[in-house]
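In keeping with the milestone schedule agreed at the kick-off meeting, the structural modelling team has produced records for the first pair of proteins. Each record is given below as a sequence line and a structure-token line. The laboratory manager (R.T.) confirmed that both were archived under the project's standard naming scheme.
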Amino acid sequence: MPIPAAAQSGRRPVDRQELSTRLLGSAAKKSYDPVVDIDWAAPIPEGLYGLSPEWSTLYGTPLWESLGEDQRITLTIHEYCSISGVGIWFECLLMQLVLRDIYGDDPAQPHVQWALTEIADECRHSVMFARTAEKFGAPSYQPPASILRLGKAFAGKADGPAAYAAILVAEEARHMRFAPEEIARRAPELSSGQLRKHRAAVAAVAAIVADNLVQPDVYASVGLDPRTAKAAARANEHYAGKLRDASTGLLAFLRGVGLIGGRSELLWKRAKLV
């Protein structure tokens, strides 16, 4: 049985080709090439955090209090580089999902050209993230082998609302218009059994992404035991609250289209995202 009209999104999806045409125009004005548009030879200012201290996975914990100012700065730089490295991993998955979705479509259609534009942007962003980590002297952080295998399997099989919801979960603001429209367009076509599978897939992606943003080896950069620090990060209610606050709009949308609910809710709660 299909879920309710427009997936309870409260509005009808925008025409796919019309939206893609607008996004192509926006991309032409806003896209850039980090290889030439960033001065990679410029020195990095000293004393600056890699991300806001409040966003550190250890902020507010005894381990955070045990660190000196320089160590806190180093930690946040490595946390940022880890998030970027995991971003490269997920962007590689995203490109596969999008290519599979448009395979065989008419390349003259705006939605295909927009998808190819997205992929080109992802390539440039991945290069930027990699060079940033290199500039900071950080290693190329990646998820563990088991998660890499899961990601490869997901990229080879995911489709429809689950694939575009995964993009929303893990990607940045420029996807936050195109992906919701695709979800709202496709979600009403799901049967009840398909809906359960898509809910489970989206919840699993969210939990895996949230747990793997900052890799355990990051903590070794400031002399902390990786296992002990990772356990502290997972138990850190302050950090969990920051993730929940940042995900409020996303979660409301996913609930509205029916992709959060039923047993999948347990996965979201276990990941402390709701």
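The second protein of the pair:
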Amino acid sequence: MIEHKEKLWTKYKRTNLEADFLIHNQFARKLKKDIIEAKSVFEESVAHSENTKKLFKYIRSSLPSKVTVPLLQKEDGTFCGSQSEFEEVLAYSSSKIHSIEPKPDHILIPIANIDVKDVQFTPE
């Protein structure tokens, strides 16, 4: 339909007749109404859908600003200005969290303590 609207416009520009201009405007108004109606029908179907992924995808696409990774704060209180600083801070904080290993004297190995008196034997 949009291509048809463009064809009507090129026809008007070629002929420069007021009748062609009125036909183009009339079709453009009808097209705009159809697009608005189709959009509202689509939004209703997404809102009432069981698939929440579609809903949240549509909401994110409708937001004026896209969701980005927030700024990281360094230990001195300043924020990362570049991608390399961001990577360094992330690697440093990740290594602090994931490299803590227990000392050998603090490792507790569970010892199974089963006595024979805890086991009951039946004739079956």
